[in-house]
Write a structure and sequence with these properties.
Layout: H1 8-23, E1 51-55, E2 59-64, E3 67-68, E4 70-72, E5 76-78, E6 82-85, E7 88-94, H2 103-121, E8 128-129, E9 132-135, E10 138-145, E11 147-148, E12 151-152, E13 155-158, E14 176-184, E15 187-190, E16 193-195, E17 198-206
Helix pairs in contact: 1-2
């Protein structure tokens, strides 16, 4: 879009319009029968307007009421499992049931986090390494599992009724649904590109 001559405001409006198409109430609604099977209580999400951006010596921290920001996800699709990335593991979450109750609101929350980063850091859209994605009309985002001394800083729980194998970061299945507890990371300026990550503290595999 930038190369096509669009301004930063044009690009921001385009992204807002794209996500509004997903969250628009006139769009398809939940297809679950006899009530939503994957309902998500979005009312427990923290208030982004209460975020505090605190400059540190090497990064900018994002706090809420002087605490790190934690958030629980709805049921999400994990098509590729875990990918090793240096000393960490990268995950590619997808909203395959994006119209289930509360899911559009969670997706809107993720988008608003990035808007808050842009506004509070006073940076342009092309200066932010976004963690959001849309592929073939399916929205999603990236997150990671960190490690210290090769020990993953994430608790993995398999709650599937028919699961018969042990699961950890080294033996993690593909094509599964999960619910994750995320911690919003700090903002780093790396060669004039501003980066942040969602760190996964707990990953629960569900049916």
């Amino acid at each position: 879009l930038k190369e096509a001559g669009y301004t930063d405001d044009d690009i921001k409006e385009y992204i807002a319009d794209t996500y509004s198409q997903i969250t628009n109430k006139n769009k398809p609604t939940c297809k679950c029968l006899n009530g939503c099977s994957y309902s998500y209580d979005f009312t427990k999400l923290v208030n982004i307007d209460e975020f505090n951006f605190t400059p540190e010596s090497k990064y900018t921290s994002i706090l809420h009421n002087n605490n790190r920001v934690y958030v629980d996800t709805p049921r999400l699709y994990l098509p590729f499992g875990l990918d090793k990335y240096y000393n960490n593991w990268s995950l590619n979450f997808e909203f395959d049931n994006k119209y289930c109750d509360g899911h559009p609101e969670f997706l809107d929350f993720l988008n608003n986090v990035e808007c808050s980063i842009l506004n509070n850091m006073n940076i342009k859209l092309d200066e932010l390494n976004t963690q959001l994605k849309i592929k073939n009309g399916v929205p999603g985002f990236y997150a990671r599992i960190q490690s210290i001394n090769r020990k993953p800083l994430c608790k993995i729980i398999d709650t599937r009724k028919r699961s018969t194998s042990f699961v950890n970061v080294y033996k993690f299945p593909k094509d599964v649904h999960v619910i994750a507890k995320l911690r919003l990371g700090n903002i780093w300026n790396i060669n004039n590109v501003f980066c942040y990550k969602y760190n996964i503290m707990e990953l629960r595999i569900v049916d």
